[in-house]
Amino acid sequence: MKKHLKHFIRLVNFEFERMFKFLASIMAIVVISNLVGFVVVPLSYMSSANEMMQRESWTVQQFIDNNELFSIYNVFRSFWMTGPIALGAIGLLLFSIFIWYREWFGKNTFVYRLLMLPVPRMQIYFSKLLVILVGIFSLLSIQLIMLWIGNQIIPNFVSNDLYQELGVAELLSSSALSFLIHNNIYEFLSIYGVGIVALLVLFTAILLERSFRVKGLIFGFIYCVITLATIISPLLIPIIAQNRYILFTSEQVALHAVMIVIVGVTSIFISRYLLKHKITV
């Protein structure tokens, strides 16, 4: 057991080292873009506010009555923050695919040496999964830190009369990141449970394609459709039955959780079978 754990940690470290430059680049873009936004957006707001008050001969109070106060939310919904968030999400999705396919690149395909390591093949599978999760939480953490930093920087560029302080927690509850961070433990586990299962399904689809090539691509697509239908099926039952009260909310939640677990476990077992019997060296 100790020996297997040691090998697994080495595999995770190996995968993380291969991802580090990519992750560091995305994080650098997030930091730089956010810092620029924390200066450019409030300066632009103040310039527009001063111009409007001068043109309309408004007092500060008249401007406030006709316009919203400035807060970090103005920066959050600007390209300087939405851009890096979208880039990080798309980048990690593509890397989740690339983390498997790069093993087959080149004449001397590295996958054969990787699969010949004296470790259970599922350790390779779980090491890749864990590294992607580390990347997701790393990007989320740096974004939260930058939001806190933004709250310290922005007041220096906005007039006190026009500034509305908005805490990070308050911002998150009313923004696009609200689905990623929850005080409710069930909602937190539900969101990230679905995310982890989505990665498991993606990995399974990739291994199906690697195992059966063109047929595997079709199998993978069909599998993704089936798993999606399975996960959302509890939400469709009231619609199909034309009775919104056919299930209690607690029953619908429990059924949804069961479906997520079934899809996750099924994906792991299919992947294990493919790695053990279909992808050979």
UniProtKB/TrEMBL annotation:
It comes from the Bacteria. This is ABC transporter permease. The keyword Ribosomal protein does not apply. The chain crosses the membrane at residues 20-45, 79-101, 122-149, 189-208, 220-241, 253-275. Keywords: Membrane, Transmembrane, Transmembrane helix.
